[in-house]
Amino acid sequence: MSIKIEIKNKRAKFEFEFLETFTAGIQLFGTEIKSIRNNKASIAESYGVMVKNELFIRNMYIADYENAGHFNHDSKRDRKLLLNKIEISKIHKKLKNKGLTIVPVRLYISEKGWAKINIAVAKGKKIHDKREDLKTKDVKREIERKLKNY
After folding, report:
1. How much is the pLDDT for 128?
2. 92 near 100, Cβ under 8 Å?
3. Is CB count within 10 Å lower at the N or C end of the chain?
4. Residues 104, 9: contact at Cβ < 8 Å?
């Protein structure tokens, strides 16, 4: 694969505190993987859901493939995530805690050509936590600017 496909959820790091991350495969149709390879997907508003001991990602947008004809996929359907039973049970145990959710962090194409997604079990940040992150980011930026001048 010559072109590197990587779709990130930039807002997730600001909104959530990641407790544990996992890498999962995604069960896709043929037109969906072609749209992902054309970089026409978004994980910004998506989230993970447990249904009958299986993990699904909801609200993930994959644009319709323009050369598909009438056999195209639904752009916001639930897609099954492919994980081991041990990983699914770990996630299920963590989700029993109140306030935790599954957030997709990064969607990419692996070296073998498979679509993979990094998900995180996350806890929502409070307003003061977000302010702390912005302050540390500003301080780092100032330090880098001053070091650049020397």
Report:
1. 77
2. no
3. C
4. yes
CA-to-CA separations, 105 to 15, 17, 118, 143, in angstroms, rounded? 12, 12, 5, 28
Residue 147, burial from CB neighbour count under 10 angstroms (0-12, 13-18, 19+): exposed
Q: How confident is the model at residue 21 (pLDDT cuts 50, 70, 90)?
A: very high
Q: Quick one: pLDDT at residue 120?
A: 93
Which CATH code of 2.60.120.620, 3.30.420.10, 2.40.50.140, 2.40.280.10 fits the domain covering 6-125?
2.40.280.10
Structural domain boundaries of the chain? 6-125
DSSP3 helix / strand / coil % (the chain, rounded to 5): 30, 35, 35
pTM for the whole structure: 0.77
State the Cα–Cα distance between residues 110 and 112, nearest whole angstrom: 5
Say what the pLDDT of residue 1 is.
Answer: 44
The span from the CA of 141 to the CA of 135, in Å, is: 10
Contact, 137 vs 129, CB < 8 A?
Answer: no
